[in-house]
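Sanity check

After download, print the first record. It should look like this:
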Amino acid sequence: MKKFEQQLLKNILKENVGSDEEKKVSSEQKRDFVRAVSEYHKLGEMIYRAQGLKEVAETLKSIVGTAENLTIEESEHWFDNVTVSRHMKQMNEAFKVFEKTAMEMSGMQQRLEAAYEDMGTVLSKYYKVNEALK
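Expected structure tokens:
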């Protein structure tokens, strides 16, 4: 092998395998890692908190429907009906976008929860995770 080829091979091996110094984990990094794993459940609290989007959408649906009826009823003598109707239509369109997005996010939320639980299951096989996963 030529010197150039040897140097190239060494560089390729170093990139793939890495040096031993790069692989070593300091005691501070280990301590931080163990603390982070032991508090894994706290991450789950944040992940599962977003579950209520369907309930929020239902509440907003009720609010939007009531607002439309009440505003049109109350504004008969106070506002221009065309303007009120236009605003109510705009609000309904915004709600439709919100509802559609909330439903899409619900599916994504389920995927996110499943991935979180899978990671936690693997971690708990090797490390102490303080609280059980949901």
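If your output differs, re-run the checksum step. Summary of this record's structure: The mean pLDDT is 77.
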